[in-house]
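Bench log. Compound arrived from synthesis this morning; before running ITC I wanted a structural hypothesis for how C2E sits in the protein. Inputs:
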Amino acid sequence: MSTSGSLFGGIPLRDQLHVLLLEDNPGDVMLIRSVVEDQAHKLLWIEHVTSLAAATDKLQRVHFDAIITDLHLPDSDGTDTLRELTTIAPDVPLIVLTHCDDDPFALELLKHGAQDYLVKGQSDGPLILKTIRYAIERKESDQHFAFLSHYDKLTGLANRELFRDRLHQAMSRAERAGKLVALLFLDLDRFKSVNDTLGHLAGDELLVEVASRLKTCVRKTDTIARLGGDEFTVILEGLDAPVDAEIVCRKIIKSLEAPLMLRNHEIYVTTSIGVTFFPSDDVDLNGLLRNADAAMYRAKEEGRNKFHLFTADLSARAVKRMGIESALRHAVERQEFFLVYQPKISVLSGEVLGAEALLRWENPQRGLVSPVDFIPVAEETGLIVPIGEWVLRRACADIRKWHAAGFDHVSVAVNLSARQFRHGELVDVVRQALQESGIAPRQLELEITESLLMDDTEASQIALSELKALGTAIYLDDFGTGYSSLAYLKKFPLDGLKIDRSFIHDLPGDPDDEAITHAILALSQALRLRVVAEGVENEAQLEFLRRAGCNDVQGYFFSKPLVFDKFLEWLQRSTPSRLGRAGNQGW
Ligand code: C2E
Ligand code: MG
Ligand code: MG
């Protein structure tokens, strides 16, 4: 008996089903051969092997529509045979050839991956044919179901459930093999703005494209999953050292660099990646996920389009962050926020021009939390939208009271986050705050950051020009710390910019900061932008700025940010004439 051969010579005809028969008993082979030859030879083309090893070899080279197999082979026995075959040929339906015909046995076979069975000596040609066809259909629906319950419909990547399963398996394999598993946690930077401006369908297209680019960066045996939204994970197995994962991270970042076309828009996506290792970083699966997430946030903080490897200190940060997040969720309703105001003063006249509203959060458990700590969390979670709305309303209402107290020339500056622009309702919120308070639009100044201009999405551009059309003044905050691109200054309808306090700190004396300050002032004059210098703490800094031609100043030298009542007192003290014009040398 040859180990391999076909019952019918040649190659399968079109529409013929190509079947692998795995059976070592010559009598049973004869039986099948005779019924098929009699009744179904036009429809079936059967190749025959006698061992699992021979089947493995065949299956790796040739595609079959179905496998008919005996469970007891020279080199494999019982359900092991099924397990082996489903591993080698996961897509091919399996039919078991057996002497037994009872329901519990059949159920057991199905559980181990077979689609159906044929009872030896009781099967004629049409029955064999029907069984094969049924097994093929059943396999398709099994696979479809398995797909739906384990894969992400949109991208075809593993879903959260399958991901957890795979990570679990990878962890036990790594322990046995003494290798490392790397877990990569990816979050697309600025994905939300694509969704908001181009719509969800475009967002979906973007995710599909990202998924296919990710696939090019890893080995077939590695798992890529989409956990939901724009969060992806990658499991890298069999690593010798962390550096192996770093190589993949670089590859991923690079692969996303090429722009992609969505509805005639050229979109640039970048991703921030957090990486953690098993067994070095933590022992359980949820711990690994938390670590990778914390490392991803750090990567985002470092300026996006970066990867960051988890270190133990990040875990403490993550815990702190989580605490801030849940406390922040209740802060608006529990009225834990308040505003402080820092005066802005004209260098030339000494007049108080207005005040910047700065947000403060006083939490019963945490005390006073710095905006530097909670604003980023509010931005990431989207809580900045309701919080920012509260700030706008409160600031406009407060300024109204100063006007009523006689200081009707002072304006108020409110800081806005890029995320508020993406939300789409910002312009309405501003319009309402202006209407409710009855202040002139010009007396509301909005401070935006370069990251907003860099987003360069249609939604933020439209919102900016609508705000401008409303009549509010727009200032670019923290100028000099970001990209400080001249192109932005020209492109957007800005009224002025604020030189970041880090440049003011070492004035006068530091040649670099002096040069930068001069350059920013020259540039602004050319572009007819007003300039506010932040963080002025002493007379020497003020003198330098006056000579350099700076318009306005803010800083501890004049006043720290003050609560509403104190600010009103300050106004009254430092403004001898009620109009606060000439003769105010109070500072
Ligand atoms: P910013 O808008 O650049 O605000 C100026 C920061 O400099 C304030 O810190 C202010 O207290 C501080 N400052 C003022 N004068 C001096 C000085 O002479 N020396 C020094 N060393 N610092 C000075 P603060 O209040 O901690 O705010 C930090 C940042 O938090 C703000 O930077 C702003 O980006 C953000 N922020 C504050 N309130 C809000 C808000 O309502 N919405 C948004 N989106 N962001 C806000
Ligand atoms: Mg500001
Ligand atoms: Mg600033």
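What the model suggests: The chain has 22 helices and 25 strands. The first strand starts at residue 4 and ends at 6.
ITC booked for Thursday regardless.
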